[in-house]
Amino acid sequence: MSPLSPRAVLREVAAAVPEDLRASLVVIGSLAVAYRLLPESDGLGVRTKDVDCVVTPRVAAVDRGREVARQLLAAGWWPRASGAFAAPGGDATPESALPVVRLHPPGRADWFIELLAEPEVGQQGRTFTRLPLGESEHFVLPSFEFGAVATHGAEPAEGGLRCARPERMALSHLLEHPRLRPEKIGGTEFRRSNKDLGRALAIALLDAERLDAWPESWLTALRELFPRRWPVFAAHCGDGLRALLASHADLREAAEICAAGVLAGRGVTTEDLDIAGRRLEVLVVREVEEVGRRATKERR
Amino acid sequence: MPRPHPVVLLRPASARSVRTALMELAYALAEAPRQGDADLVLVDGSITHRRLKKEWEQARAVLRPEVAGRLQVWAVRGAAAERLNGKGDAKASARVLQAAEAERRTGRARARRDAEFAVFKILLNHWFAGEEPITTDALARRAGFSYPSVAKVLRKWGTILERTSDRRLGFDGFPREEFERVRALSDRARATARFVERGRGAGRSPEAQRARLGKLRPAGVALGGVAGALRLCPDLDLTGAPRLDLSVHAPSGRADLTFVMELDPGLAPVADPHAPASLVVHAVPHADPLFEAAGAGALPWADPVECLLDLHEAKLEAQAVQFLEFLTLRRAALALGVR
Predict the structure, then answer these.
(1) Which of A4, A272, A299, B84 could form a disulfide with B199 if both were Cys (CB 3.0 to 4.6 A apart)?
(2) Do A272 and B201 touch (CB under 8 A)?
(3) Same domain for A242 and A107?
(4) Global pTM?
(5) Same domain, yes or no: A105 and A52
(6) Do residues A77 and A204 both lie within one domain?
(7) Spatial separation of the C-alpha atoms in residues A78 and A105, rounded to whole Å
(8) Which of B195, B198, B207 best probes binding to A when mutated, by most A CB atoms within 10 angstroms?
(9) Rounded distance, CA B128 to CA B334, Å?
(10) Residue A70's domain is classified under what CATH number?
(11) Is residue A158 domain-resident?
(12) How many Cα atoms occupy the beta-carbon half-sphere of A244 within 13 Å?
């Protein structure tokens, strides 16, 4: 993986997407973290292969996702073929067997754009929405239960695209993983929960100066997205974080993943990530949990 | 009844230090009969449990039962807490372990009880404020020392004091030589504790730490240093604070620094006085902290002399000279009735 310049990547994506569709795409993941929090001037860039773009809003995800994919293909972007999901399917192919839309820019194979959708209201876990581009060119748009937390309040970025707010990406990772889970990231020995929870810590590490503003931002997103259930989510937002901090082996793995990705070239150690986690817990999580617990009590 | 914060003794070196801590806590309990039980927590010491229990038994033999019964003694090693004088429940054990962990991370600054330092600071603040001379009795109360102790200090300063016919006193000018002498002793008298950002991540600026302190509002903590000096003298030749200086009221000599863990768990104490600290905490050993209330939601301000000492301690000598000139000129204006 060679380092990418977040701004250059966003410009390249924006250039291939019609202007009226650009604001429908919210960039999340390590590229969004780097765009928001890493100075371009340090020249380190970000090490990532996938540029995750969520097609918004949910109700228009299929139409707009189809349009974005077609435009990119017309501009010379080419599908990434990998493993069991190398080729698109047809009407009869179940969603679980369809590939995600992953497109490389023309002439490059070092990174690709991946399209996702926001979750449906009340969605639990991960789901896949069929995205037919042609008769036997069916793909899927994956969506995650707390994906809307990451995209909530996304702000304008390079070329008219939008970019997720760092603290809300961190919250969506914490909510997705209330405990450490054994599931591995495809093709690796790394646990998915270690990667995502570690990402939340990496964001807290890079955004240390603004941590005091996080509790309000988290609570705003939770209240607006989950008008009935937000107290429960708030009251338990630190469960996964504490589980990670309590397991040195998992924290070390999280640090290894960060050191190869969003924190590459910064010499960040397990101890650094541990400090970031403790800071996140004391400055942000405790306050949000307390608000959640109080609201839960009041509702009884 | 409120339960006071546990008194924590980190790595007690001798049975004598344990004995002293036990007695100090017993005195405090005897003086506050309405206060709840108190914990003495001995953390990571090399003294055996047997010896510690013997110390407790000896102390119990001389303490009144109503005082001994309110004193709970704990030994903490690693992540295990054991009560040495009775049974401890899980809740108490968790409370004690939390206090021990906070102490391990931040420590507790202990100021030398120095009557001369306390009296000097109070009188100098008095002088800078252009206030009328005060009685020795009032001075003793504000300093938190006995009348004889204060009188002994004042006898040494015969030539720099102005005394009125009704037995009031104050400095008759800025006591430069005495100030330099007291300044040299201030690190010890104020039990200055320094903290640095641990780890290689982005640290938090003094401004961010200050904003969080405004939210936490820890009791007995005031803002000093560059921020405190700039409040009085906005023309101070400095842009931004290189570090945050806080003053913690510690009339008993013990400054509770556990709030530092709540402020930022990324901070760690550093012994080297030359290390570039991002947070510096000074104990205020006089009974009247001389703090000045700030607006709602803000920390109070430390007194001008405290801020002046902070500037010197931070090696901001040019700014310290400028601030001293400002305070002296302001004093002259106040004495003339210009406010």
Answers:
(1) A272
(2) yes
(3) no
(4) 0.79
(5) yes
(6) no
(7) 7
(8) B198
(9) 9
(10) 3.30.460
(11) no
(12) 36
One domain for residues A199 and A126: no
pLDDT class of B90 with cuts at 50, 70, 90: confident
In a domain, A176, yes or no: yes
A209 → closest Cβ in B199, B202, B261: B202
Which residue shows structure tokens 């006089």? B286
CA–CA min distance B243, chain A (Å): 14
Residues A127 and A193 in one domain: no
Q: Does this complex have an ipTM over 0.85?
A: no
> Who among B211, B212, B266 is closest to A275 (CB)?
B266
Q: Last residue of some domain: A147, A180, A210?
A: A147
**Is there a domain that residue A85 lies in?**
yes
Residues A205, B202: C-beta atoms closer than 8 Å: yes
Number of structural domains chain A divides into? 2
Tens digit of pLDDT for each residue in A211-232? 999 999 999 999 999 999 999 9
What does the pLDDT profile of chain A (300 residues) look like in tens digits? Answer: 667 888 988 998 898 888 888 999 999 999 999 999 987 767 777 788 889 999 999 999 999 999 999 999 999 999 887 766 778 888 889 998 899 999 999 988 888 999 999 999 889 999 999 999 988 889 999 999 999 999 999 999 989 999 999 999 999 999 999 999 999 998 889 999 999 999 999 999 999 999 999 999 999 999 999 999 999 999 999 999 999 999 999 999 999 999 988 888 888 899 999 999 999 999 999 999 999 999 999 987
Decide if A63 is inside a domain: yes
| B103-135 as b/e: b if 16+ CB within 10 A | bbbbbbbebebbbbbbbbbbbbbbbbbbeebbe
Q: Which tokens belong to B185?
A: 């002793």
Give per-residue pLDDT as tens, B9-44. 777 777 877 887 888 788 778 777 777 788 898 888
Domain boundary among A147, A181, A213: A147
B265 burial (CB, 10 Å; 0-12 / 13-18 / 19+) is buried
Binding-site residues on chain B for chain A (CB distance < 8 A): 198-205, 208, 211-212, 215, 261-262, 264-266
SS3 B219: coil
Indicate if A52 and A138 belong to the same structural domain.
Answer: yes
Q: Are residues A71 and A140 in the same domain?
A: yes
